[in-house]
Design brief:
single chain; about 550 residues; Nucleotidyltransferase, domain 5; 2 domains; seven-stranded mixed sheet; 20 strands; about 20% strand
Length: about 550
């Protein structure tokens, strides 16, 4: 039997990863990860201003590295038939008329406003509020598919901010492109906005595109926000991620040593791809637990009807699985919360290392095991109703009822509060936030009988996962795939190549079984603390 290999590419917040899969058996043959070099240096970002930008050169350099890495491990590169791609979203960039990011053009090389605006960039917070106020005030329906709350994470908030604060960049722009579509266009050699085949999931969930109002909102709507938005040429078509964006262009085929017949799939959003890699289906919730957290579910149209759930992050027909309503909710910070705790507590170590180079190696070793040590200590603490209670909104709230302006809090501190209790409070807060999201989805009619967790936190932290199970009161299965997003991209590639007739059919073969299951432990004290969390966050009266 002839081999049929597919490659799944996943671009996360800090790095890109590719996996090589035998599309007939599901065997993962190779994986390659590479960090974005400029991002790793902290360039072009200003966290105090909620500005997070990534240079297109980072994406291009990593793309070549990870693809060549897995191709080199392929027993027969001539058997590679397709490449699928997912990235963070909404992560857009202004481009010229040939879809070239402006940061790759002379004069804009080091201008952050000419780069990709990362998903967690909230510089467009005021603009998102303005969009919501306009839609609410005039009864426009254009926020319906994002829970009637348009986020600072989404495309138009970012574009509106750029045209106002970076007019010289906006004036040079012809169009804009999402990261996932940029990578697909790069591999296929597409330089024409009219020929671009962007993904439906991103445009439907982040760009306000919907069939019921004829595509994008009308020019008159954008004119009320800022007429300069209407200068941007936009793709007038979009496609499911089980379809082909094209085939490898001669340049990249030669660079990678592959045939020009290799199919490149339509670009996808990482959380949506992770849902597929986790085996999403009706009544299965996939929990993608990484830097942020995304909770993905599907509902048959006949069960959902025309109902729109207020306060979810996205609800789009065909966004996750073709023919079903895709529902996305999530948290803007999950693993980022634990990283923040580490960075906060590591401040004296870093200061000491800077002052005394001889101490640097020891400081690094202490910092590297800090979260593990805190976890060990926090896991032994009893559940106390009077223990410190935190909220998790270090990067605002994505759902339910998104509000990017919210900040985190820690209450109940006493002179005896120590670092493990501090850490436990934020782990607990992140679990309470997940509970609020899941309760809200179920109250809105989403049917959940099974929870599958994917992502780095799910793989690495039994303490966090057991806390989640206890707070949710549900069994949680952890997928044995360590690369669920990349696996989802590989599944889409296999379908685009015609190896499987549908995403569901491919999932049946290619999604691995659970590696571990967490069973919930009932705790009246934990339940009481969750109720206090709802009151502290203001969600008590919003969640029914």
């Amino acid at each position: 039997m002839q081999k049929s290999f597919v490659i799944g590419v996943d671009y996360g917040t800090d790095s890109g990863r590719a996996v090589l899969l035998d599309a007939l058996t599901g065997e993962q043959i190779a994986a390659k990860t590479a960090a974005y070099p400029r991002w790793a240096e902290g360039r072009y970002c200003n966290p105090s201003e909620d500005r997070f930008r990534q240079h297109p050169k980072d994406y291009l350099e990593v793309l070549e590295t990870i693809l060549k890495g897995v191709i080199a491990a392929c027993p027969d590169p001539s058997g590679i038939v397709a490449i699928g791609i997912d990235t963070t979203a909404s992560t857009p960039c202004l481009t010229d008329s040939r879809l070239v990011p402006l940061a790759l053009k002379p004069g804009f090389e080091d201008n952050p406003d000419a780069m990709f605006v990362l998903w967690k960039d909230h510089t467009g917070m005021a603009e998102s509020q303005e969009i919501n106020a306009l839609c609410d005030g005039k009864g426009y329906p254009y926020t319906a598919h994002c829970g009637h709350v348009y986020s600072a994470e989404n495309f138009w908030s970012k574009m509106l901010h750029l045209v106002r604060t970076a007019p010289e960049v906006a004036e040079a722009a012809d169009s804009a492109i999402e990261c996932c579509d940029f990578l697909a266009a790069t591999l296929t050699g597409c330089h024409d906005i009219e020929a671009l085949r962007p993904g439906h999931c991103c445009i439907g969930a982040k760009w306000m595109w919907a069939e019921e109002w004829g595509g994008y909102p009308p020019a008159s709507f954008f004119g009320e926000l800022d007429p300069r938005l209407n200068r941007l040429r936009l793709p007038q078509q979009n496609f499911g991620c089980d379809k082909a964006a094209g085939t490898l262009c001669p340049e990249w085929a030669a660079k990678l040593g592959l045939s020009e017949s290799v199919i490149v799939g339509v670009g996808n959003v990482d959380s949506y791809s992770g849902a597929v890699g986790g085996g999403v289906r009706y009544r299965t919730l996939v929990m993608n637990l990484g830097t942020s957290a995304c909770f993905m579910a599907v509902m048959p149209k006949e069960r959902m009807g025309d109902k729109i759930i207020d306060g979810v992050f996205a609800q789009v027909d065909g966004s996750i699985l073709p023919g079903q309503i895709g529902i996305e909710s999530g948290l803007t910070a999950f693993g980022d919360i634990y990283a923040w705790v580490r960075n906060l507590l590591s401040w004296p170590l870093r200061q000491g290392a800077a002052a005394d180079p001889a101490f640097a190696e020891k400081a690094e070793a202490i910092e590297n095991k800090l979260i593990a040590d805190l976890t060990t200590a926090a896991a032994t603490l009893p559940v106390r109703e009077e223990a410190p209670l935190a909220t998790d909104y270090l990067n605002g709230r994505r759902s339910p009822f998104g509000d990017s302006s919210l900040t985190a809090a820690l209450t109940g501190l006493k002179i005896g509060t120590d670092a493990p209790e501090f850490f436990r409070a934020f782990v607990e807060a992140s679990a309470f936030a997940v509970r609020a999201v899941v309760d809200h989805m179920e109250a809105g009619g989403v049917e959940i009988e099974r929870c599958v967790a994917v992502g780095g936190v799910a793989q690495k932290s039994p303490f966090v996962m057991q806390m989640l199970s206890d707070v949710l009161g549900k069994q949680i299965e952890v997928s044995s795939s360590k690369d669920s997003c990349a696996l989802g991209s590989a599944i889409h590639a296999a379908v685009a190549a015609g190896i499987y007739p549908s995403v569901e059919a491919a999932e049946e073969v290619l999604c691995p079984p659970a590696s571990r299951k967490y069973e919930p432990n009932s705790s009246p004290v934990l339940e009481a603390r969750f109720r206090r969390y709802l009151a502290l966050t203001g969600l008590k009266d919003k969640l029914k």
